[in-house]
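REQUEST FORM: STRUCTURE PREDICTION
Request ID: SP-0412
Submitted by: Lab K.M.
Chain count: 1
Length (residues): 195
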Amino acid sequence: MKRLFDILISSLLLVALALPLGLICLCQLVLLGRPVFFQQKRAGKNGRAFSIFKFRSMRTGPGSDAERLTQWGALLRSTSLDELPELWNVLRGEMSLVGPRPLPTEYLPRYTREQSRRHEVLPGITGWAQINGRNGLSWERQFELDLWYVDHRSFLLDLKILGLTVLTVFRRENISAEGEATRTEFSGSDEPPGL
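STATUS: Completed
RESULT:
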């Protein structure tokens, strides 16, 4: 049922948002040039790597995230419009609408065994952690919320998360970690990885 729901909603949204997506692509080309999309290897279900698609929000080249983040990119991020291309990942079966956010594959060896359980389900565009603090959370708290979702997931919970996500996007809260353009890198927990 979850997969059918993902296919139905992502397909409808991609069709309904075709014009806005096209306009964003055009703005991307004018304001940032190529490439239009940001691609990065992320860990999916069972830790399997896939390429996530987002609208690029930073200039290419050297410099910190804060230095490379453009005004246009900041607007895309604050409105979560940069996440819309992930609907294609959902349609391809690499992601779900709801689940723990997919993180870079280089984080995989840094998780504890318990934290690794977040990969028992498909990653999502939004999730329990995203409506409960988003990037304002510590990594440990985010993983606690991710695991709560893994253990309590249901179709009704997914609907609740989707509804609350709309409110979270309109509030534009916790888009970035405090003092960061995006978020600090996860370097591992105090507990040794794999334990």
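NOTES: The first strand starts at residue 37 and ends at 43.
Reviewed by: T.R.
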